[in-house]
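Hi F.,

I've been meaning to write this up properly since the lab meeting, where we talked about keeping a consistent format for the predictions we share between groups. The idea is simple: the sequence comes first, exactly as it goes in, then the structure tokens exactly as they come out, then a line or two of notes. No screenshots and no reformatting. I'm using this chain as the first example so we have something concrete to point to.
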Amino acid sequence: MPRARLRDLGIVTGTLPPGQWNAITDVPGIRVGYTTLIDDTPSIIRTGVTAVWPRGPEIWTDAVFAGIHSFNGNGEMTGWAWIAEQGLLASPICITNTHSVGIVRDAICRLAARDKVEMPWLLPVVAETYDGWLNDAVSFPITTEHAIAALDCATTGPIAEGNVGGGTGMICHEFKGGTGTASRIVQTVGETYTIGALVQANYGSRDLLRIDGVPIGRELGPTEVPTPREAGSIIVILATDAPLLPIQCQRLARRATTGLAWVGGVGFNGSGDIFLAFATGNHVRASETISTLRMLSPDKMNALLQAAAETTEEAILNALCAAETMTGVHGHTAHELPLDTLVNVMQRYRPRPA
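Output, unedited:
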């Protein structure tokens, strides 16, 4: 069976409706770009960079409110201390492999200099997960140019999933993992808002993997699909066009934990599970000394909190469904989730009417 997204297989999780593309780019203004590196000489390279623009290049002077939650902190996300202090995000976000965080972070600074961004200093956000089981990480293949290329090619609309960008060499629940995305549309206080998620999934044990409560991981044990090493870490980026303040963004970020748990993530000691949520519904412009803000009432946030959990869950599952079997360094192979078997198992547990 060819690779397909979860819903294309007839499998639906959650109760809220997705957006047009069922992607983080359903949130107006958001753009996503990738650089994907797959090469066998002179080193075995399986890695890349994912770039997310919260509202295009205007983010440099028109910041968004943001919040971060560390479910388990064996990982890195640069710039988090200033977000925790100030609650503002005023630069693009990148995700890459563990050993490339520094050069990708510096590349964002170089991009700002190239484009003559009028900011006296920069604290960019770059997050990571480790791909050294498939990728020769110590060859340090990612360059400044690779990171800038991902930022420059970012676009709206449908985006690629699986073995792309920073997710190229990642493993999830002992299957091939990587990049995934999803979205939800919610209505509250007479307004319609979009919530989107983008994940770099590289965590989890096989026997804990569940889809809509079905123990897929136990059904597809090592006798069905060979098992690579246990992976660690997931980065979740959540976005919404709702008018939220920083503490509300932080609350939204925490709900990614629920979506992760639904799939089978528990935050192991070696896992870097770091989540960032931002909201474009307010404008904090550098040219203003006083900004006029709106805030969604806290007791009207329930639908957004549910959507954050649902989009995280489906984004992880889309990453698993899209990712293809990959052989990397030292002959290590991460096998794809077999979609035909997945459909059969789901049908056995959740029979659909004839």
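Notes:
The radius of gyration is 19 Å.
Residues 7-346 form a domain with the L-amino peptidase D-ALA esterase/amidase fold (CATH 3.60.70.12).

If this format works for you, I'll send the rest the same way.

G.
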